[in-house]
Amino acid sequence: MSDIILGIESSCDDTSAAVIKDGWLLSNVIASQDVHKAYGGVVPELASRAHELNIVPVVSEALSRAGVSASELSATAFTRGPGLLGSLLVGTSFAKALGISLGIPTVMVNHLQGHLLADFVKQPGKEVVQPSFPYLCLLVSGGNSQIVKVNSPLEYEILGQTIDDAVGEAFDKCSKMLGLGYPGGPVIDRLAKLGDPERFKFAKPHIPGLDYSFSGIKTSLLYFVRDEIAKDPDFMEKNKEDICASFQKTLIDILMDKLVKAAKQTGIREITIGGGVSANSGLRARMLAEGEKRGWKVYLPEFKFTTDNAAMIAIAGWYHYLAGERASLDVAPVSRMADF
Length: 340
Ligand code: KG4
Known about the structure:
340 residues; alpha/beta; Nucleotidyltransferase, domain 5; five-stranded mixed beta sheet; 9 helices; 10 strands; 42% helix; globular
């Protein structure tokens, strides 16, 4: 008999539901929340209210696009965390309530594990290309920057992680500081394509081992722009493409230095990336170039799987379901990774 899993993702500002049948994606619906743009960042209270409005239509649409009725589902899978508590609460409560009403089990998923396993979502009509275990995943998003060794679908080790800001935060905060808007990653990515990445130099952190730090580069950029604007008030406007290109290159250098080190230390050459920042065109190009140079097999996620989506929650949920794991009714969402 087939396993049909309904995945539900609501960790931040995207309400998403997806249906997966034996690992094959039947539907993946995402409702994004534009309400936060006016505030230059996600407003938690507004996010949870928008999830409440979106969750029923998004789940209905996912079932309808999949051609699956609720009674055919084998299990519901939900993101337990990390993320915004109010947002997570909506998906968690909905998945559990639907599970009870249908008399089917519910499984919980760590959002980051979803990103780690995004390459395992099989899509009808598309070639199946999946990394072999163990592989390294550079997990880069608005809340995390980690190098993870994935030993099997449910077994992974964090080899290194940021000790302060996430790289996505560095993109977002610096974009805000430069007056370029939110979210910063896509804007900086677009402007960087037009600029010279070698024009300006920003200080890189010296952190031991495989950990990252991205808070210093913010300060470095802030002082640099402040000093240049003091000399020429139009400096920013005249040079924004070069600033973005140089800033982005520095972030990519920092990420890649540690990834190369991790690959050398572990001897692993199967490399994937995941999370919102994996949409960055400079990072994707660099991953491929580095892979070519070092004999890595690099797996880049499709753009639709780089941001928060329920397809990755459904696939991770399926593995938990196959392993016989079940979430009890008293499972509550958690905001931090450390609470898992
Ligand atoms: O995984 P994600 O959707 O969710 C959170 O972690 O909340 O990641 C969002 C992050 C944001 O910081 C955003 O600026 C960044 O991903 N991002 C990008 C790009 N697209 C999104 N960063 C760099 N380049 C991009 N093209």
